[in-house]
Fold each of these.
Amino acid sequence: MQFIRPVLHSQVCTSARPSARQFLQKLGKSCSFSLNSSSTRLYSTEFFPINDELYGLTDEQKQLRQTIFQFCQKELAPKAQQIDAENDFKDIKKFWRQCGELGLLGVTAPTEYGGLGASYLDHAIVMEEMSRACAAVALSYGAHSNLCVNQIVRHGTDEQKSRYLPKLISGEWIGALAMSEPNAGSDVVSMTMRADKQSDGSYVLNGSKFWITNGPDADVIVVYAKTKPEAGAHGITTFLVERDSPGFSCSRKLDKLGMRGSNTGELVFDGVRVPADRVMGRLDGGVYVLMSGLDIERLLLSAGPLGIMQAACDTAFQYAHIRKAFGQSIGQFQLLQGKMADMYCRLTSGRCYVYSVTRALAQGSRQPMDCAGVILKCAEDATQSALDAIQILGGNGYINEYPAGRLLRDAKLYEIGAGTSEVRRLVIGRAINNIYKS
Amino acid sequence: YIHIINKADMAASKGLKILVGCKRVIDYAVKVRVKPDRSGVVTEGVKHSMNPFDEIAVEEAVRMKEKKLAGEAVAISVGPPQSQETLRTALAMGIDRAIHVEIPLAQLEKLQPIHVSKLLAKVCESEKPDLVILGKQAIDDDCNQTGQMLAALLDWPQATFASKIEPSQDSKQLRVTREVDGGLETIDVSVPAVVTSDLRLNEPRYATLPNIMKAKKKPLAKMSPDQLGVDLQPRQEVISVEDPPVRKAGAKVESVEDLVGKLREKGLVK
């Protein structure tokens, strides 16, 4: 395959924007504001602007986006390529601490436990900007802050909240949630992990969980197991399991197509004893915790593909206006104008849908139909936009020095995790059927 | 009219009162374009943010409060209505209250450091701060004049290009380390004084969401140049603004002799 490297003045597509500090350092003591076009690295519009006026965000939310954008672009984006290449985020503990200091790990948690007591929309904005910088780390963040922390906030007893939330929110601990099993993905309620009650009131867990985000690193895990296997869906109970429990182990870290750096593991529970006061919610009532949690999970995680779509626009639109062919920048050719228009409309309409549903949820209205709808739409659109980004970058989209390929591999996960697109369609279809049930 | 600031002046009795200047400038990452009529650069619809050196000044004021060296920190910005956003950022970083000297759009383009320093001097007369911290220069005009002019107008000592601010040995003055061409210079200044911040003074914090939310409740007072009795007549006229010439390709030479030969050819060396 023959292709020519573009004569860019800098590797604009691969490196993150330098911080204000680096900018000042480069200009030196006799600071002169140079309009010299050869220093495109410092002055080019590396990011496709977001018009927050469209979404009815409050001033605080606009400032929040600015803050998280700056934080993630400085602390996370420069490492994204390496994290993907190594399938490991070595600085995760340091990053978690930094997130903890900014309150990001407990956006929706009450302030008494160190949380921000803020809304799902605020949480979605954080998730979106983090995903824009590095989708893999954002996925781990989402699993920690929503799947684990938020479930404890919603269903934990005061004692459980006091025991687990402070360290999860400060970033000292990493959280995870385990429901899927090697033989139970879409059909998660057919899970076979058992939780057998002992004479002293505690439970002994036996079984394994699969595809668990943060599994290899988690200190605290929300685990679903069958206390009454014969009752099917209504025999599930939710447990809080700690990493150092005897019999618990992460047998392996999975080698994935994308979201590399978001450590995913197989968890083995070999006679793990869980005290009675680690049961979360009602005994045998775990399916309610699971299903309602899934709705919120889908909603919050849909900000993940939004961030990927934004990153696709950031990369591709800039490239299209720098890369020249046939005497002009390729972004001015109609076929690419069309592609960029499609990418833009998917991104903007996706944002409107996600923000609307998060607002409704914040007001107390949870619609399973729309929670499934947002992630269904955004995930499929993100895959398509990532494909378009690769196409716009042409030969360069196909090499791993440029981020477009990683965006595609990361985007694809969102069509599968938190309920496959097929299951999401079933949820919506059945909900519509219900409306017409006589 | 001037909003009356909350009379219950909190901890102002203890520690220094600091006034911090913030300027709203075109964001450092934006590709600046010269207007077709060459009268200036395009600002309409362009992303703006707080001057990076002012962020450092704000951060220093907040840190001095945290160290209990300062009791109250007030941010001030001279600019268009949108300067309020810049002030909100300062408030979200930990500043107690803000003052906005609003400049009508017509006079904005012709506003120069001499005017800003006069406005700030007037505000200092009523606010009576112990310390004014400004960014050493703004990244749009690179003037590096406001701090120095302000100190002269107030007849206060100045310590520019500060890379460290701490109490002096006897705690009666401020000991400021300055970055100068020859290295670092340490001086003691008595308060009240004007200090301008340089890059290595500190690394500014990120505004956290709780602070962003709290910022909305903090007082933001508006003033006009007329109320302050400052005349904004421009002293300079901008004749034209142009792009710098496109950089021409250079040439590589193999030896020092070649280099000297080339310099002679171009008449740059006899």
Amino acid sequence: SIDMLMSSEKEEDPDVIPEDSSLLTLRIRKKALERREETIIVDRACRQETLTYEMESHATGKRPDNPTDLIEEGELLLTLNVFYPVIFQKHKDHKPYQTVLVLGSQKLTELRDSISCVSDLQIGGEFSSQPDQAPEHISKDLYKSAFFYFEGIFYNDKRYPECRDLSRTIIEWSESHDRGYENLQSVKMEDYVFNDLSLKIGFPYLYCHQGNCEHIIIITDIRLIHHDDCLDRNLYPLLIKKHWLCTRKCFVCKMYTARWVTNRDSLAPEDPCFFCDVCFRMLHYDAEGNKLGEFLAYPYVDPGIFN
Amino acid sequence: MSAVPGLKEDCEELLGAFQQADTVRFESFAELWRERRFHTVFYGRMRALERNKLTKKTLDLAQQYFLPPYSFQIRVGALYLLYGLYNAQLCQPKQKIRIALKDWPEIQKFQQDLLDSQHYDAAYIFRRLRLARAFHFTAMPKLLTYRTKKKIEENYFKEEFKDPSNRVNSLITNDVLEELMNIHDHYQKMKCIISADKSQPDKALSLIKDDFVVNLKDITLEHQEWQQNRMKLFRNAKETDETENKKKEGTSLESEGSERANALARIKYRSYSAVVEASKSRRHRQVQLESSESGSSCGKSPSGSKKTRRRPQPARRRGEMQVAKETVTRHIGMPIITEED
């Protein structure tokens, strides 16, 4: 009976703003809508908006098939913003980031695995003479070390024997002179879960991998898990927001994403020049696979590859 | 997050009307809600993403009124408002109300108060919200966003803290001047008593300027006039009550007081309404209230009874303040006549 007091008496269309509204909010909104109708020809969700909405809401209310994967009641849910290391001029004001939800009981290594960064896929080396051998070892496999920095403690990834302690350099540097940073410690990432950490909300922390690829991490929210959230443990860390980066297209066909970049190329109109795989081979190699012209070619991974 | 335009005014208007209605019954709130057809606040053709964001901001705004330091009646109104907005929202699944951990004990205390004062309808509403799982229990009240704002929103504070630089006045207030004068009087009398001639202090004891209180007052007045001239130029564009009041009242000390009275009257949720409401819901507690009526029995009275005697109260209080001001100014006016030497 309480609800009856709230809802309207007759059938109303929520899309239509009533004419004689006494609410200031609605009057303003009506004006804005009218202005929109005049200026926008086709009022439809663009694909960016659809993507954003989908990512935000695709996991709400999901339940796992396996009941052991169900998240219990007192679980904490953290919202982290992981910033991209890419620095473009156009990102001066709003640095792009992705938003990840993690559970309090998840290990730091799980977060590490879920962060997808383009520098992980880079392939080092010049491959103009042997273009077919290019995608052999991506950097993710070669350089496995990484660390998180939270509140004065470096959490290093030590799961594989190749992983080195990247934070050692920093700790040695800070201890060498009295620089005012006390007590930087180094521990293993895989031993800790998020519940063990003491964190500040809104304070920038660091995730460093590949030796020099650094991401800022900011925690925006900590809250208890809710009935309407996704309760499938396997889906976490859950990505709910991602910045869309335009990919660079091949210079020739302007259709496919660039996979090669050439420098000092006598056959190309500009330096550096981007090509997709097909156009690259067609332009630079003859039918037998011999190299034509002088150039240096590197495999290229576009930052927008995760779109 | 940028605010929803117009929403704050609408909410404040509704809460203000609820406060005027002077009751905490849900029926009166529902009446006001229906009058304004508040459930339409989410209308307007918008797609799901925008609707989610809008609803989140709306609930966040309403939630602010639910916490202290707002008065009891406003908080109950905010609870009803949250209930209404939560149920009227068009998002599927529904957006939740964020409550920070630090606020939770206060809210529980609030609920206990509701039960103690037997406002069972408000307690029921709160329980309904809990059962409907309408709350997110968060660590911090505001969800952070990271976009550099093109213009920093300071509009909220402009209204409330209108006289920022009256520090001289806040230091040399009427009370201070009164005290100074009293002490000065005492001092003079002391000097008279211990000197040979009982009517007049010894020449050897005159170590201070006798009229320093007067000088101090003059200097303060001058400063205030200067400041007000400056403010007048600044505010010429906006026609507010203060400038009119300033022109009306001659003495600047008086106008300073009335400026304060206006600012107080405008901060209606926080100042005298707290005094008024405390008598109503805590009638079993003895609260000392200087300006509201004592002994008003409102707790068990039937819902919807309007207390019209409360309405002239703001005017009365303002009148009191003006009377007080006049006496003080008269009092301050005295040194000019009675100062010796």
